[in-house]
C-alpha cells in the first residue's frame, strides 16, 4: 500500500480502487481518506475532481447519519472538532471552491452548516444556513436551512430578529405552500404576542390600534386569532377611555362573529 502510494505511476487510480475495496467493507472513513489522497494527485484532473466530490459526500453523509440533530429546545454547547471532522471541513471547503451551486453542492453546504451547529458554533452555522436561504431559495436545502435559522433565533431569545426574519422568509423565502403556511402562522403568532406585550405594559390605546391593524392585515388567515384580536381591541379601547371606539369595535365583533 505505502509502496504504491510513493512509487507507482498509476497511484491515483490505485487509491481510487483501494477506496472501492473499503466501501465494499463499509469502511467509509478509510475509503474517504483514499479518495482524498487521489484527489490531490495527477495526472487525471477529472478523476481528481470526482474523487474529491465522492470523498466529501462519503464523509459528510456518514457523519450526518451518526450525528442527527437533537431537538431538545436548547442550542448545542461548544465542543471540539475531531480530526476526522477537521478533515471533512478541509475537503469540503476545497471542493466548494470549484463547482457551480448544484443541489449536490448545496447539500454539502447544508451538512457543513449542520456540523458547525452540532459543535455549538452557532454564529457560523447561522450565517451558513442563512446564506443558503437567501442565495438559493428554490433549492431543496433552503427549507430545512430556513427552519434552522428561525430555530436558532428563537432559542437565542432574539425575539425582534426572529420576527423580522420570519417576515422576510414569508415575503422572499421558499415558495413551497407548506413552508409558506407554517411561516405565516409563525408571523401571525409573533405579531400577536408583541401586541399582548403592549397590554402587559398597560399601553391600552396603542394595543387597541395594533389589534385592529392585525385584523385588517391577517383577517381570515386565522379566524381564531382574528376573533380574539377584534375582541381584545374593544377591551383595550375601553380600558384606555375611548368608549366610542370601543363600542364601534364591539359592533364590528358582533357583526363578524355573531
List the SSEs and their pairings.
Layout: H1 2-7, H2 11-24, H3 28-39, H4 45-66, H5 83-96, H6 103-118, H7 122-135, H8 142-155, H9 159-172, H10 177-200, H11 204-218, H12 223-239, H13 243-256
Helix pairs in contact: 2-3, 3-4, 4-5, 4-6, 5-6, 6-7, 7-8, 8-9, 9-10, 10-11, 11-12, 12-13
- The SSE string, one letter per element, is HHHHHHHHHHHHH
Q: Beta-strand level of the residues, as a percent range?
A: under 5%
Helical proportion? over 70%
Shape, principal axes of CA atoms:
elongated
User: What is the makeup of the main sheet?
Assistant: none
**Rg of Cα set:** 27 Å
Could you say which structural class the secondary elements and strand pairing correspond to?
Answer: mainly alpha
Number of helices: 13
Number of strands: 0
What is the terminal separation in angstroms? 83 Å
Average pLDDT taken over every residue: 88
**Low-confidence sequence ranges:** 3-7
Amino acid at each position: 500500500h505505502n509502496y504504491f502510494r510513493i512509487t507507482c505511476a498509476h497511484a491515483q487510480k490505485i487509491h481510487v480502487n483501494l477506496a472501492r475495496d473499503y466501501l465494499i467493507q463499509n469502511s467509509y472513513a478509510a475509503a474517504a481518506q483514499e479518495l482524498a489522497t487521489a484527489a490531490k494527485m495527477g495526472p487525471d484532473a477529472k478523476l481528481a475532481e470526482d474523487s474529491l466530490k465522492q470523498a466529501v459526500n462519503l464523509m459528510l453523509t456518514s457523519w450526518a447519519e451518526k450525528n442527527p440533530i437533537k431537538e431538545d429546545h436548547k442550542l448545542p454547547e461548544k465542543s471540539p472538532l475531531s480530526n476526522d471532522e477537521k478533515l471533512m471541513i478541509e475537503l469540503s471547503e476545497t471542493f466548494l471552491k470549484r463547482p457551480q451551486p448544484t443541489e449536490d453542492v448545496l447539500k454539502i453546504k447544508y451538512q457543513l452548516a449542520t456540523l458547525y451547529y452540532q459543535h455549538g458554533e452557532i454564529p457560523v452555522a447561522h450565517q451558513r444556513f442563512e446564506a443558503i436561504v437567501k442565495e438559493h431559495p428554490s433549492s431543496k436545502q433552503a427549507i430545512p436551512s430556513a427552519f434552522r435559522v428561525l430555530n436558532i433565533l428563537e432559542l437565542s431569545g432574539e425575539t425582534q430578529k426572529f420576527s423580522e426574519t420570519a417576515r422576510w422568509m414569508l415575503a422572499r423565502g421558499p415558495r413551497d405552500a407548506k413552508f409558506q403556511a407554517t411561516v405565516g402562522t409563525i408571523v401571525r403568532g409573533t405579531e400577536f404576542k408583541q401586541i399582548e406585550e403592549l397590554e402587559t405594559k398597560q399601553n391600552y390605546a396603542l394595543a387597541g390600534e395594533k389589534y385592529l391593524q392585525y385584523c385588517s392585515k391577517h383577517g381570515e388567515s386565522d379566524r381564531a386569532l382574528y376573533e380574539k384580536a377584534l375582541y381584545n381591541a374593544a377591551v383595550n379601547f375601553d380600558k384606555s377611555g375611548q368608549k366610542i371606539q370601543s363600542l364601534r369595535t364591539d359592533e364590528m365583533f358582533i357583526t363578524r362573529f355573531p
